[in-house]
Amino acid sequence: MGEESVDIRLEIEKAKVPLPPQPQRTHFVLVHGIGGGGWCWYKIRSLMENSGYKVTCLDLKGAGIDQADPNTIISFDEYNKPLIDFLSSTLPDSEQVILVGHSAGGLSVTDATHKFAKKVKVAVYIAATMLRTGFVTTQDVKDGVPDLSDFGEFADVYDIGFGSGPEQPPTSIVIKKSLQRKIIYQISPLEDSTLATMLLRPGPIQALQSARFKEGGEGAERVPRIYIRTARDRVMKPEQQDAMIRKWQPQHVCTLESDHSPFFSAPFTLFGLFVKVAASF
């Protein structure tokens, strides 16, 4: 049988008949939240690539290894430019991706689906800000902005940057190192929360607060959405997640018994959900 297969292949090559194209691998694009970076997906990326998926982990402007100073990033368009550039210039027109956003990365996902709906097969929100038009109303802010007042006053919880001067609004924030495990990673492995404490950077708060999107675009409403709730979340509280789900109902909702960072606290379960998404779409 082996020699016969080789002979057939040789005959095809002699006849200059092209072999059928290989099936395109499912491509996931993973977007981090404020202060994070592509590094936060290291467990998920390993699991997915070992299973044959194509994975891209982006650093948004001023995040991860991007060298920009977050205090100088004022507009959301500038902050989200790496994702938009990837979809517009790097990704072939014939390819679609499964776009995943964690936490504030949900704003990036929504922006991208408004602008490049044809390139997004499905949008996945993980403990994420999911607002159809961004921060337009006070209710949007209430639903989509973390409320950490249970842990103290704003200045007690965050390290704050004032790139425009001390009399101007903050330009960057990051949860204080002493509180990060308690707030963000309370059930994650200690080694992961330690790594995160070393790598988290201040995020451009003014840029995120300016996130507003025009409805319509190229058909963002036609992009299927999946929301992954995090039931033990102390950052994006479950009631906030539920409010956004009710307001802009996705096609599917799943719940993980995880903290705000399921890529650390529940990586295998999260990976299993990704596999189901890939199979379903």
UniProtKB/TrEMBL annotation:
It comes from the Eukaryota. The keyword Hydrolase applies. Transmembrane segments: none annotated. Keywords: Hydrolase. InterPro entries: AB_hydrolase_1 (IPR000073), AB_hydrolase_fold (IPR029058), MES/HNL (IPR045889). Pfam families: Abhydrolase_6 (PF12697). Residues 28-267 form the AB hydrolase-1 domain. One of its GO terms (biological process) is jasmonic acid metabolic process. GO terms for molecular function: methyl indole-3-acetate esterase activity; methyl jasmonate esterase activity; methyl salicylate esterase activity. This is Methylesterase 17-like. The lineage of its organism: Eukaryota, Viridiplantae, Streptophyta, Embryophyta, Tracheophyta.
